[in-house]
Amino acid sequence: MFAAYAYSREQFEALSGIRQHSLVESLKSLAKSLDSNLSVLNKEPASDLVAFARRIEAKTVHATRAHDPQGVAEQNRVGLALKAAGIYLQLDDSNYSVAPGSVVKPDGSPYKVYTPFFKTWFQIFDSKPEALAEGVTWSKLADLNQLPIPDKEAPFNVVAGEAFALRTLARFKQRALFDYDELRNRADLSGTSHLSHALAFGEIHPRTILFELADSPGHNVFRKEIAWREFYADVLWNKPASQTEYYEPRFAGMRYDSGPAADEKLAAWQQGKTGYPMVDAGMRQLLATGWMHNRVRMIVASFLIKDLHLEWQQGAAWFEQQLSDFDPASNSHGWQWTAGSGTDASPYYRVFNPILQGYKFDPRGDYVRRYIPELNHIMGSDVHEPWNRLDGLINGYPAPIVDHAAERDEALLRLKEIKIS
Ligand SMILES: Cc1cc2nc3c(=O)[nH]c(=O)nc-3n(C[C@H](O)[C@H](O)[C@H](O)COP(=O)(O)OP(=O)(O)OC[C@H]3O[C@@H](n4cnc5c(N)ncnc54)[C@H](O)[C@@H]3O)c2cc1C
Fold first, then answer.
1. Are the CB atoms for 368 and 362 separated by under 8 Å?
2. Ligand 1, from 183, 185, 289, 294: best to mutate by most atoms within 8 Å of Cβ?
3. Is the Cβ atom of 342 under 6 angstroms away from ligand 1?
4. 306 Cβ partners below 8 Å, 6+ apart?
5. What pLDDT is stored for residue 347 in this prediction?
6. Helix, strand or coil for residue 92?
7. Does 302 sit in the ligand 1 pocket, CB within 6 Å?
């Protein structure tokens, strides 16, 4: 058997440094687990795979079925090119416990709200890990096996691969799974699994994770988070345009800010210089590690949309560049949920207060100090309001670029204009 990974050089070069490195580390690890028998094809997937299949005289090429819009389009192109060469593309299974599109209401229509989706998903979800292929001998075409060389430097080490993912899962089970329901929202603690990168790159299958779970509060909440990933994949599968367009179209008509002043605010947000410690710590965690805590993702997203009045797509594009766990469905719909334009539209408009969120989810201020050295001189939770102290901003930390209370009112006013209460 031959294993190949095909990607387009052009797409690879368009990726940010962190995502190039993540992919290369993933491929290195995959190659290692196949005793170096991985052929990496890096010009253009359709023509590369046709040439490859012809050389090894394959009649069928197997791949995991993609469900995101770009992946589906790519597999359609490859399938047609192979078909023209008399070769069959066999697509199986998915990177989900239940394939997107399979969890439907009794009338066959897709779910738009998570909780009823979860109830049905819970009836049919599969937690049986795939058996490893026994007795397979892997071969390669020597001159095709070139791993890509990242053009851009990643600012930190990336560790990837299946073996690392399995170790991460084992450590999470010992470290935090039992108390996951209590600790997962605490930004200052390591209370979550950090498995998002491995899930996004297909290094671990969700069934392998679900198989480990029992019936306890911590385990049950963790299973529900895995199901959020499945829900968003299902939503995107049913409405591919929602990767970049408003799921709820009325929000496209809302007033948003643009122009040089708005661009300056966007840059301050990206660099973690808004003057709101919890927002800035999150944005700097992203720059420093390629990952951000889920609670803080919601806080920074709410700030971009409701305090800076920018469109969610601008934030999602920055996350796409910077996140090592970037996933099209979870990213776009995580943003749209926070914007209020996505699934699970709530009867009230969610505006996160970045100060109160700091006191609640970083009660000792440790998370903020870890990422904002200019605030290291402030002990305890006072770090969430440095402007209240005479010495708060002496190390160059900026004053708030906007007034949260005023911007909250402004956000509610703009919302009223599109008549959503
Ligand atoms: C604005 C925004 C953007 C996001 N962008 C991404 C993204 O690009 N890629 C991504 O994987 N996740 C994204 N998320 C979801 C979530 O923040 C991350 O999955 C989580 O922080 C990853 O850390 P973890 O593996 O330790 O999570 P854990 O808490 O350990 O959860 C386990 C797994 O469940 C899934 N999961 C958990 N929470 C969510 C959620 N809210 N939505 C969907 N899946 C979830 C993830 O696969 C995660 O790895 C985003 C959330 C928001 C609010």
1. yes
2. 294
3. no
4. 351, 352, 407, 408, 411
5. 62
6. strand
7. no
Cα separation, 229 vs 23, in Å, equals 20
Amino acid identity, position 273: K
Atom of ligand 1 nearest to the CA of 193: 30
Tokens of 134: 């026994």
**What is d(CA 41, CA 161) in angstroms, rounded to the nearest whole number?**
19
Ligand 1 within 6 A of CB of 329: no
CB 193 within 8 A of CB 226: no
225 lines ligand 1 (CB under 6 A): yes
pLDDT of residue 219: 97
Q: Given the CA of residue 297, which atom of ligand 1 is nearest to it?
A: 53
Which residue minimizes the CA distance to atom 33 of ligand 1? 226
> Is the per-residue pLDDT at 163 higher than 90?
yes
Mean pLDDT score, 177-194? 96
Strand partners, 39: 4
* Residue-level pLDDT at 58: 96
The answer, yes or no, to whether any atom of ligand 1 lies below 6 A from the CB of 323, is yes
pTM value is: 0.96
- How far apart, in whole angstroms, are the C-alpha atoms of residue 269 and residue 98? 37
Which residue's CA is the closest to the ligand 1 atom numbered 22? 196
Residue 421 has pLDDT above 70, yes or no: no
pLDDT tens by residue, 372-407: 999 999 999 999 999 999 999 999 999 999 999 999
The pLDDT value recorded for residue 253 is 95
Mean pLDDT of 313-328: 96
Distances, alpha carbon 386 to alpha carbons 2, 21, 281, 363, 402, in Å = 59, 37, 13, 15, 15
Ligand 1 neighbour 229 (Cβ under 6 A): yes
State the pLDDT confidence band at 298, using cuts at 50, 70 and 90.
Answer: very high
Residue 296, amino acid: V
Residues 6+ positions from 204 with CB-CB distance below 8 Å:
162, 165, 166, 169, 195, 198
Closest by CA position to 303, among listed 172, 400, 159, 187: 400
Instruction: Show the domains of the chain with their CATH numbers.
Output: 1-92 (3.40.50.620), 95-130+162-238 (1.25.40.80), 243-417 (1.10.579.10)
Write the residue with the smallest CA distance to atom 37 of ligand 1.
225
pLDDT (tens digit per residue) in 40-51: 998 899 999 999
In tens, the pLDDT along 90-116 reads 999 999 999 999 999 999 999 999 999
Cα 336 to middle of ligand 1, angstroms: 14
**CB distance 210 to ligand 1 below 6 Å:** no
